[in-house]
Inverse folding.
């Protein structure tokens, strides 16, 4: 589903190179975890997959279902089924969360040539999905992420993902700032969406998230390159031993 080939990228305004030859393949139905020290390029990788304009690809390619997406803008990528959950979700004052979710869903449906979902149908769907994530509907009447706790912001993002039903979900440190109860709820929401037709790229610092979202593969990103890949046991090794040995072996 996702194939990244020799990806080099830099900060567009500064020219600072961040990714230095990333190679990665994620199959349909797979949950792949990306781990690595701070400054390794993990978040940059997620932004580039989503099409963030602050980064420039200088070499390599990103294929989604066999098609290069580098020339697609973020909206086009989203319409094809690419979703990014941010480490720090943005606040949008004045826009009720429910309005945002309905607009996002219908924008994607329109881009795919599908009819817009009516308000009653959307409300029924949103209520069902919110109940699964233990989200109070009153929260969805509030401006998007304004005054939300860290856990509420992440639940709202997982709700958006549940409604949009993307084929490729890229999750940038979704566990950041969550207590254990919120982490379990978010993980349950992700696990409920796992399917043979959907892939996840889960970016995290910590093994604790991978206790609840068990990955099929784990990849270590360091200085803009993947230096080691393995199964879920690799995450346990990193938790127990840190990155020092793996970095030393790759040097």
């Amino acid at each position: 589903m996702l194939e990244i080939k020799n990806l080099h990228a830099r900060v567009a305004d500064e020219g600072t190179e961040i990714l230095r030859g990333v190679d990665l393949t994620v199959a349909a139905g797979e949950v792949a975890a990306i781990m690595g020290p701070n400054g390794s390029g993990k978040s940059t990788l997620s932004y580039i997959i989503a099409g963030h304009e602050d980064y420039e690809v200088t070499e390599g390619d990103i294929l989604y279902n066999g098609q290069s997406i580098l020339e697609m803008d973020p909206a086009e990528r989203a319409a094809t089924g690419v979703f990014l959950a941010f480490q720090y979700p943005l606040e949008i004052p004045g826009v009720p969360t429910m309005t945002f979710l309905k607009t996002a869903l219908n924008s994607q449906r329109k881009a795919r040539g599908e009819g817009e979902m009516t308000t009653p149908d959307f409300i029924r769907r949103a209520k069902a999905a919110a109940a699964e994530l233990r989200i109070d509907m009153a929260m969805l009447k509030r401006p998007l992420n304004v005054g939300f706790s860290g856990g509420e912001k992440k639940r709202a993002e997982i709700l958006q993902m549940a409604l949009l039903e993307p084929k490729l979900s890229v999750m940038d440190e979704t566990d950041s700032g969550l207590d254990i109860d919120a982490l379990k709820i978010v993980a349950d929401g992700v696990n409920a969406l796992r399917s043979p037709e959907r892939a996840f790229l889960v970016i995290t610092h910590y093994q604790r998230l991978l206790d609840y979202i068990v990955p099929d593969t784990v990849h270590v990103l360091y200085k803009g390159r993947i230096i080691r890949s393995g199964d879920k046991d690799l995450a346990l090794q990193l938790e127990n031993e840190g990155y020092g040995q793996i970095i030393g072996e790759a040097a």
